[in-house]
Amino acid sequence: MKKIKAGIAFLYLFLCTTACHEDFLKKGPWGAVTPGDLNTLTGVNYLLIGTYSLLDGWGTGIGGQNAGSAGSIRNWVWDTASDDAYKASTPGDLTPAGEVERYEALPTNQMIEFKWMVSYDGISRANDVMKALELAGTGISDGDRRVLEGQARFLRAFFHFRMQQMHYQIPYITEKVEDPKLVSNDHPVWDEIESDLQFAVENLPESFPGEPGRATKWAALTAKAYVHMFQQEYGQAKVLLDEVINSNRFALVDSFYHNYTSYTENNIESIFEIQSSVNDGTVQGQNGNADSWLTLPFNRFMPTCCGFYQPSHDLVDAFKVDANGLPLLGINGARYDDESLPNDMGINSEDNYVPTDHLLDPRLDWTVGRRGIPYLDWGVHSGKEWVRDQENGGPYNTKKQMYTQAERAQAAENTYARASAINYRVYRYAHVLLWRAECAIEENDLELAKNLINQVRRRAADDMVMGKVSNTRFGATDQIMVDWSKPAANYLLKEYQAFPSQEYAREAVRMELRLETALEGNRFFDLVRWGADYDAMTKFIVKDSKYRIFMRGAVYDRKNAKWPIPQSQLDLQKGVLIQDPQF
Amino acid sequence: MKFCAIGIVMPVLWRNTRMILEKAREEALKALRLEQGIKKRLVMQLKLITILLVVTLVQAGATGYSQKITLSEKNSMAEKVFRSIEKQTGYVFFYDHADLQNTRISIDLKGVTLNEALDRCFAELPLSYKIIGNTIAVKRKTVKAISEKVDYVPVPIPVPSLRNQLNFREPNIEIGVPDILSERRITGRVTDERGEGLPGVSILVKGTQQGTTTDAEGSFNVNVPDEKAVLVFSYVGYVSEEVVVSNRSNLDVTLLVDEKALEEVVVVGYGTQRKVSLTGSLSTVESAVIKNNAVGSVSQALQGNVAGATITNANTPGSDAKIRIRGLSTINNNNPLWVVDGVPRTGGINQISPSEIETITILKDASATAIYGARGANGVILVTTIRGKKSQAPQISLNIKYGTLKNIRQYDMLDVNELGEMLWLQYKNSGIAPSHPIFGSGAEPRIPKYLIPAGADDVDLNRYDRVSFPITETNPAGTDWYNEIFNKGVLKDYSLTVTGGSSNTTYGFSASALKEDGIVIKTGYERYTVRSNIAFEHKNWLEIGENFGLSYTNDWGDQRQNGEGSIFGQLLDVSGIMPIYDVMGNWAPLTRLTGIQANLFHPLAELEYRRDQRTQNLTFNGNTYLRLSPIKGLSLKTQFGVNYGHSHSKTPLEINPESYVARVFAELSESYSKGFTWNWINTADYFLTIGGKHNVDFLIGTEAISSLSESLGASRNQFLLTSDNYWVMDAGEGNIQNSGSASDWSTFSVFGRINYDYEGKYLVSGTLRRDGSSRFGANNRYGMFPALSMGWVISQESFMGEAINWMNFLKLRYSWGKAGNDQIGNYNEFTTFNQNRILSYYPITGSNNGLTTGFQSAVFGNPNARWESTTTTNLGVDVTLFRNFDIVLDLWKRNTNDMLYRETLPLVVGQATIPFVNIGDMQNRGFDFQVDYKSRQQDRDLNFSVGLVLSHYKNKILKLSNNESEAIIGSAVRDQIYTRAQIGTSFPQFFGYQVDGLFQTQEEVDAYPQFGSYNALGRFKFKDVNEDGVIDDLDRTYIGNPHPDFTSGLNGSIQYKNFDLGISFYASIGNDIINLNRRTLDFNLFQKNRGKGRLYESWGSPYLSDNRDAKMPIAEINDAVSQLPSSYFVEDGSFLRLQSVQLGFNVPKGILDRLFLKQLRVYGMVTNLLTWTKYSGLDPQMQTNDNSFGMDIGEWPTPRRFVFGININL
User: Fold this and answer.
1) B273, B279 in Cβ contact below 8 A?
2) What span, in angstroms and rounded, lies between the C-alpha atoms of B414 and B478?
3) How many CA atoms lie within 13 A of A471 on its CB side?
4) Closest by alpha carbon to B1010, among B1100, B1120, B1121?
5) B388-444, pLDDT tens digit by residue?
6) Which of A92, A94, A121 sits opposite B1084 (nearest CB)?
7) Could you give phi then psi for residue B729, rounded to 5 degrees?
8) Is residue A67 within 8 Å of residue A57, measured between CB atoms?
9) Would you call B539 exposed, middle or buried from its count of C-beta atoms within 10 A (0-12, 13-18, 19+)?
10) pTM of the predicted model as reported, rounded to 2 decimal places
11) Who among B453, B841, B907 is closest to A53 (CB)?
């Protein structure tokens, strides 16, 4: 009987467990919020910061630092398609970027897909802001709403613009779109970009005290002007640029170099900067300038990596000036690339090499690291030993995104020195001046153009420079000698006296943009908007093949002005997305 | 003299049948000898030798029968009556034929119990009976009279009641004459481990034919010649015992059940089942196989021993093997479910020592796994741990292994001079003047004195600075990096197990310690385990027990198993010209050299820095249960189990200024995580037999599981000291970091199973499980998993006739069922946002060192997801031929439907974790084949056995999503993708360009479809697969398949007297490997060292007499295009390996007795002795993730182990 009782007790227990409460199977995620939790002023602002966070190209999704390269704010991978830069590092390293460099990127190229990924993620985050704003209803005041929405639409336009630069047509995704998958790329989206930027212009304040990272009215004006420039709408651009100039809020900083340091950021020349930060509680400084992960020199003298994105021979040649201190534009005179400057390709560091004594624009040595010139305060560039693989990337190094030893403690991640806190100046006053000069030239107002260009040149002409190195060999026993009282090279930079023709002026402003903003990522896109890409690149390939054997046989076709729509997206959005007919 | 007979009526099962036949033959021979002996009028005292053959159904024996008997006989022979009772009840009568001669019974019974029936049968007879297990022992009522009366009666030839077809030859044997005068009489009783008397036990005086059998009570008396006599007690199904009489006159003996001889019982889901009655497909692995392996890992020891399982071992110390049962059923998690003593585990099995294991069963088809429902689709591996038997004296066993292990393979790299020569060849082939920072720019490469400064021959050593000027010399003699890094490791493994039991308690205890060095210096693994299992029984109806296992493991050193960063990946970077140290004895800055450099690390320095990196796991795995048997046949069990794992990893790292991305400060990172899972299982099992023919076993149960994992991590840098006891988090000054996470899940399930068989001939089994899981949204929280299977034991059929002599057993099985896979993470249902310092914060304030909070979209939820369901059909056959060949063949097909797939979303929707949707379909087909041969002569000097397992599967994706062209793209390795899968392919396959050899002539180049400007002499001819006249990415195609056609294990053992020799082979046939090490060895990926082939075997090499013999394209500065994923990297990965050879010696009994030992075995073993393969990499046997299956990037090779071991049983 005892047994039976025990059995019954057991069966009771058994049945109890079968009546298990439904709540037992309800488990929710830890440490995450559901969308509704963010429909507040704080929540919307958090989402907005999350959108800004993608400006550096480093975001969610696959690819990590390679996506950071493709989506890089500096566009460095895409700039290797221009005559300014090489992919560099070693031949086998980051081969998808090598395909971009050789104009061989197919619709399946990973870099194209990564850029698409990062940009549309930014757009999606901007739309999340818009949606949360909408759902927050009266919880957010009209004033706050306009400022938040203005920033969100600025960012949305900004990301779309970077896509539209790349491709012939792209889908424009807004928060009103029910299903982004169904938005076609059946037209260029310039109007949509302009409309979002116009909203930003009308609603954004002139400044955000204490928060210089936010987009202001001036940022929106400049961005919109550049968008118009891409459509050759110089008249519309002019008005906007004038508004910026006439505000008298901006000026050129004293030294050209101060556009490239971590301690002169958000200065009077800055209109919109991508903010970078290191030693901020992340492990490897991923909020640092994403470009600097791969594009800083790779040698034993500096703690950086990986030797991608080296300056081209052609770029260095462009810094040549004539006896008047003016660039060799090739109009009524020699062109900079008629004859190449000698360089130290194939010469070992301990062998003798005398750097050129050609007259040069001093901005060269703030832009390019080259043999025989001090590399900031890291010592003297000794040639081959400073370059990862000369045969693949040429003899020059980048300089603009490198920090100095002096600022290292603040500007470099202390555990991962390749990440830096140097902001990238997307729009600065020099851009505004030169773009305005472009507009003036297209209106044939050459005098105004000359004055604007000269403003920019004047600052560079009267600027600090590196010291003179007397060594011509950098052998193991050679003492390095630098005379800081003498300029490192034979510099000369003068203002234009007059533009003899519109054609000359056009070349001058384009050259000035190149010299002033070299290796800042716009060169290729500028060539395309000028319609100058085909000629420039075709010539470039011929000259460059002398140095880099793998450029032999490369062909620049007119279709290479744009990159194809990623094949993966065409496959996923069949009947919605259409491929560039050129591909 | 007594006459013995055999009563066998019940349908016997094959194993017993064979024993019966053998025994009967043997006994008949003995009887003949006796008869002849008597004919020669020899005088002897002879006790009757009786055979008792009992078909013992364990479950039946344990639980008894309770059916009614109906019988009507008039003056029938007693044996006939007994037979009809046997038929109705399944009980077997045991009696002396002589006792029943001319005994007749008249009786009329209707629906009475067995006891009542027997009482009435025996009421008028001079006989009594006793029920022991399922045997009814019949004896004369006057026991004493027997021995007095019939001692000298001649014995006629016994006629086995069933098998009279046996043919006996006439033996002619002289029987020795014992000295009667010195004889002594011994009385005693033989009992089983429960203390019940065992009837019919054969007792022989060793070395004579003298003997007797026990009576129904288990009692015996026997005359022995002297006190030195040894009595041998033997009984079918029990282990024979030998006892020295010495000066005793009374002798009580307990016989232990011989597990092997009994009908094999197999552990199945939530219970056990007789092997013969199985209808599902499962494999068992003997614990000896696991224990005798040189590897101290349970999972690795399974390789080559399980038909239907593909097992790949990892070669880092203490690593788990990857087990794939019947292919890959999903693109998601394919790990089988491990269940230890009924408690499901998460993670691997390596925390358990082989010494703790009693049985391993691998459930393969759905009829076996459906009882595990949503977790069963990938197969289930059931493990039970050691347990004693009732009334078993403590069995103490000590196992000691000591061994060494070493690496046996390395890549053949260019030496110092060859490297320079190869670089010069590259320059020449590329048409540029040689100029190298190290090797100079002369006509011939030169080897300078210094690497830093690059290419220098002279330097002022006073300028040395470890950070800014680490002067480093070249090593013209060449550094042997492999030699520097290899370790001749030591492995030590000790285990102690004790099992035993009293009349109502059983226990198993074990403790073990293992320490194993890696084949690479400063790596290793150690494990300590303790286990204690106890069960108490109260009055046969209540059992309470527990199983408790505790384990601690510690892994240390740099054990990255694959990838560029693994030590074997790093070794591809370094060149002999690089020294280990710079001129001041600090690590040479190999990653900071110019012209040639290691891309990632200084391999030796990295091993040294990571020597104190360790991961420690403390795991508790245990359960406690209560089992009730309130009525016969019913067993109610409730079991509560817990899995608790605690993991601590700690990585202290010193500064490494010589490294490229230097650690400027010493740093420490540390993390703790814990996982707690409990499960509560309730089962009711009811077994009954209806009408003696219908056996039914019902099982119903419930199971609730709940799991919570949490983790906490922290790191800091800037440690003033780097001494051992300064490495605590508090001592760090800078970069204070911390992190934490948590997740949980739960399931609740109800399940049931019915096993039915008719006379053990026709078998049917059905299973149903209903699972609820927190992992799925409310819309699809519950799912049903049914299974049905059938079996037919053809060998039981009378139409088999004479065939039964050679086809001793034949069973056909068919099964169909569904199981699920819910391994998709925990919160698929929810759309969430989160904040992340790296991905969503932004320094909006312009700070260079501070961030502002931002949020990002984290997960897109899918509330509609439900589990994948995998439907398996299985057709199996079990055959025993010629008594010695056991063959098992299963043909199977598995279809996975509603496969959970993270459908690729267009990028325009933004980035967040994409949820799983039920959209894909996958199919696997294959067969598992196993054949075993064992020579059965127990008493011969020479015995041997051979076993072969063979597994085949073919994996195919039937559907991924609604998009026909959807493909699963593998992850990129150095920016290239090598694997891909889509409809119609296996998951995964290799993908890339097809190489059609090299361009040998310019005409060939000119005529070939253009590939940009790539085509040139000596380069690859990439195939124009789509024949559109150009080579581009549309010409990429499937270029290899990593899935083997077959995997096979062949195990043989030979025993000769006290020696035994075991040999095992393992083979994997028909699989491809993509050897990505060759991208580094053959091409200019980085400025690394290269393999010998680049100089000697590349097109245009001066060492080649004919370029048609070239094995790789021309050596060039820029060969980026040649490095594209292509068939060039794909190799045949088939191999056959002599896995192990083991020679053992069992110390003879005589010596053992003097040492007071039961057993002492010493053995030596060598593993990985020989490999036959065409694969050019280090090792064709390697472990990779499913989506990078078959990709060799810096994989650790299999070591060779030399092991010496001792087993001692007390």
Assistant:
1) no
2) 10
3) 22
4) B1121
5) 888 888 899 999 999 999 888 899 999 999 999 999 999 999 888 888 989 988 899
6) A92
7) -55, -40
8) yes
9) exposed
10) 0.81
11) B841
